């Protein structure tokens, strides 16, 4: 099995494997794999109706659960042929159980990572904002509607207005301390990824909205399909000087772009307090936890190495 860099030509085959897997994780989205490929380089391979992914970070090869619909035992054999003690990341709870069952001889230890958990919402709830738990969101939306009555509109993102989206994101980035793609900080990396996605907007099958207030861009968002029941919102940016702009672009995206999908994945909060508060406030239907799996041989080696160097032994 030969690993290589992902290309746009892989889209159809990769998306077939992703959809067949039934995964709800945002990191399985082809669009995410493609748009973030220069920021977080990874490799892919196809074999026996599965999509295989791996990445090298901090000197360690990290594997992802194979995506597809076929013989999982053979899929794991493919991975073991090249890595006898594979470390897995981005695992759902169900996938940790499958690994433990299918590869018992490796005796995996799993660690949960809350910062990487995906927030998954019922689309109808994002549209209606009904009920006591979302009452404040509905009030915020209504206040925007009253304040800007007759002064706002949303239009689908298309080749005709992509230049406005680029310009808006550049301005947003400038206000929030981004300076292009050279820095490794998260916002700089996101800037690179967004520009990659916008460059191939149609080819990637992206769908999005651009919000105008008083004739000027005030917010935008775009998403893609993971499977028939789930869409993934990749980016959502708004002008915070226009009160309610984030609430409106969120609700309008669900209503006008994503209503055919029962669920919407709005991705992780990365441990950022403000982002966590915002995502939790929309009351996710599912908080999809992510896990890391380390085989016993590697876990033991790490503990031994840390003990010899005088480093405090800790869970990984």
Walk me through what this model shows.
By secondary structure, the chain is α+β, with helices and mostly antiparallel strands. 38% of the residues lie in helices and 27% in strands. The chain has helices at residues 11-21, 30-35, 72-82, 93-102, 123-128, 135-147, 162-175, 186-199, 245-256, 273-281, 296-309, and strands spanning 4-5, 43-47, 50-57, 60-63, 67-68, 87-91, 109-122, 152-156, 207-213, 216-227, 230-238, 263-265, 286-294. Strands 1, 2, 3, 4, 5, 6, 7, 8, 9, 10, 11, 12 and 13 form a 13-stranded mixed β-sheet that branches.
Largest sheet descriptor: 13 strands, mixed
CATH topology of the largest domain: Aminopeptidase
Q: How many structural units, i.e. domains?
A: 2
Give the CATH superfamily of the largest domain: Gcn5-related N-acetyltransferase (GNAT)
Helical proportion? 25-40%
For the record, give the distance between the C-alpha atoms at the N and C termini, rounded to a whole number: 29 Å
H/E topology pattern: EHHEEEEHEHEHHEHHEEEHEHEH
Question: DSSP helix count?
Answer: 11
**Low-pLDDT regions:** 303-316
Strand content: 25-35%
Radius of gyration: 21 Å
Mean pLDDT: 93
Give me the secondary-structure category: alpha+beta
CATH architecture of the largest domain: 3-Layer(aba) Sandwich
């Amino acid at each position: 099995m030969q690993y290589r860099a992902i290309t746009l030509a892989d889209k159809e085959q990769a998306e077939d494997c992703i959809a067949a897997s039934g995964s709800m994780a945002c990191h399985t989205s082809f669009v995410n794999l493609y748009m973030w490929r220069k920021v977080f380089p990874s490799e892919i391979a196809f074999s026996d109706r599965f999509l295989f992914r791996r990445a090298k970070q901090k000197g360690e090869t990290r594997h992802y659960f194979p995506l597809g619909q076929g013989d999982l035992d053979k899929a794991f054999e493919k991975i073991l042929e090249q890595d006898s003690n594979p470390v897995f990341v981005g695992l759902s709870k169900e996938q940790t159980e499958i690994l433990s069952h299918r590869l018992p001889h490796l005796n995996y230890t799993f660690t949960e990572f809350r910062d990487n958990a995906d927030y998954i919402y019922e689309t109808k709830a994002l549209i209606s904002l009904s009920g006591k738990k979302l009452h404040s969101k509905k009030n915020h939306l209504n206040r925007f509607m009253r304040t800007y009555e007759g002064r706002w509109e949303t239009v689908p993102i298309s080749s005709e207005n992509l230049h406005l989206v680029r310009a808006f994101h550049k301005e947003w980035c400038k206000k929030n301390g981004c300076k292009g793609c050279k820095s490794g900080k998260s916002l700089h990396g996101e800037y690179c990824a967004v520009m990659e996605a916008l460059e191939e907007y149609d080819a990637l099958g992206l769908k999005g909205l651009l919000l105008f207030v008083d004739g000027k861009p005030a917010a935008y968002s775009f998403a893609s399909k993971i499977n028939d029941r789930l869409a993934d919102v990749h980016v959502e940016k708004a002008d915070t000087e226009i009160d309610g702009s984030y609430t409106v672009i969120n609700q309008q995206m669900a209503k006008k772009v994503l209503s055919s999908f029962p669920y919407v994945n709005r991705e992780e909060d990365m441990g950022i307090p403000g982002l966590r508060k915002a995502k939790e406030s929309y009351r996710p239907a599912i908080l999809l936890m992510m896990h890391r799996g380390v085989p016993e041989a590697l876990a033991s080696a790490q503990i031994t190495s840390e003990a010899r160097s005088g480093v405090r032994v800790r869970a990984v």
